[in-house]
Amino acid sequence: MDWEALLLSIKLSSVTVLILIPLAILAGRFLAYRHFPGKSWVEALVMVPLVLPPTVIGYYLLVGLGSESWLGRMLEQLLGHQLVFHFSGLVVASILVNIPFAIQPIQRAFEAVPEDVRDAAACCGMSRLKVLFKIELPMVWPGVLTAMVLCFSHVLGEFGVVLMMGGNIAGETKTIAISIYDSVQAFDFASAGNMSLVLLLFAITVLALTTSLSRRVGGQYVAKRR
Amino acid sequence: MKFRVMVLALLLPFLAISNGASAAQDVPAIAAASSIKFALDDIAKQFTQETGRKVRISYGSSGNFVAQIRHGAPFELFLSADERYIKQLTMAKQTLDDGVVYAVGQLAIAAPKSSPLTLDPDLEGLKQLMAANQLKRFAIANPDHAPYGERAEEVLKKLGLWQPIQPYLVFGENVSQAAQFAVSGATQGGIVALSLAVAKPFEARANYVVIPQKYYTPLDQRMVLTLKAGETAKLFYTYLQSEQAQGVFANYGFSRAMN
């Protein structure tokens, strides 16, 4: 059991969710309420990571952010270290890969908010920010929760991107998925089996918890509305 | 109110974790060909016992490591399975010098204990199995970027088996994966690094026979310090050339390096 790798994966998942979800709430709300020319192109762009193989994203990040690219060199000067083969690079990659998993459920949730509720809030003279926090967020919460869980679990399982641009460095970029891959190659099936079991149990628990949580939150909203 | 409590409850574990596990600064990252995994793990353990210094070793295919180092991977020492890859880095001015050969690798043909493949140094058994239409899958490392795969291709070509075996080949991403295919029963056998075949977890599952050196160009495994090398990496580099470390390599079926 590679605890260091598991901890690193959990850290990566948490950081990704913390950065990505607030951005996804803004983007999801925007996409739900605004209509503008080329909207379907923007929505398509958001969905691209879903259909792109992770190795493709890994390749672009490796080449685009590596020390042979101008962007990579500029970022290196700015940050004092490289993005590729570094934890921060994995964060960038995880955010990119998870954009559809974060935005989609949140956008759908915003779309489901009845227009009369928003109108009523606006009529009462509430500021936009207040409407967002007092009215909309409590209503779209199940969508946000789904997005959080999807992203968290998805980062935990991310393999291709991390393998391509992470470099498999212990304590820095060696995530649990890579560690499982490594153990299998070292014929350490006991360790690989243990880690896989931990991930499996974690996935089931998290999914069960979210389902029940979002059901309760959803119920609470319906009760209040009445 | 409930809403806020829930947000807090969800955030707490994230906050608790985010300042945990950060890697210590003086532990160099080392890239090593997966063929030396078992030997190098042993040597690294001895090194840590003797000096109190630690190293972080990543195992993979040599070709991939060259690509990663060229794109700025922070490896301080690179142990390649073939010196050709070191030369690519040297020419790109990413290394301190030309490095040294630390071991000479050997090939073995291996098969799971239950396999119908009979093992012999000249691969007659493999030929017969193919002639009898009984071969289903045969594993080698990817010849495009794994030196042991390249040498396996060379052996198969020299014995006239390369064309007929094409439909049955499965490629490991590196020789370790090829070995794992070869022993797990997923294939009837494979050509792997001798150093993996002699390792304990492998021996329990599979048989092997050494492939004679006359069938392939020597696998001079060279290592080199990169421009990022610090003190511990340099000490480890010297340690790898010591009598003790060389003894461990020999135990894992490597021939002695002649520099």
TrEMBL record, chain A:
Its main location: membrane. It is a multi-pass membrane protein. The chain crosses the membrane at residues 12-32, 44-63, 83-103, 137-156, 197-217. GO terms for molecular function: molybdate ion transmembrane transporter activity. Signal peptide: none annotated. It comes from the Bacteria. It is found in: Cell inner membrane; Cell membrane. Residues 6-210 form the ABC transmembrane type-1 domain. Keywords: Cell inner membrane, Cell membrane, Membrane, Molybdenum, Transmembrane, Transmembrane helix, Transport. One of its GO terms (cellular component) is plasma membrane. InterPro entries: MetI-like, MetI-like_sf, ModB_ABC. PROSITE patterns: ABC_TM1. Belongs to the binding-protein-dependent transport system permease family. CysTW subfamily. Part of the binding-protein-dependent transport system for molybdenum; probably responsible for the translocation of the substrate across the membrane. PANTHER family: MOLYBDENUM TRANSPORT SYSTEM PERMEASE, MOLYBDENUM TRANSPORT SYSTEM PERMEASE PROTEIN MODB. This is Molybdenum transport system permease. The lineage of its organism: Bacteria, Pseudomonadati, Pseudomonadota, Gammaproteobacteria, Alteromonadales.
TrEMBL record, chain B:
It comes from Shewanella halifaxensis (strain HAW-EB4). GO terms for molecular function: metal ion binding; molybdate ion binding; tungstate binding. The keyword GTP-binding does not apply. Residues 1-23 form the signal peptide. GO terms for biological process: molybdate ion transport. CDD domains: PBP2_AvModA (cd13539). This is Molybdenum ABC transporter, periplasmic molybdate-binding protein. NCBIfam families: modA. The lineage of its organism: Bacteria, Pseudomonadati, Pseudomonadota, Gammaproteobacteria, Alteromonadales.
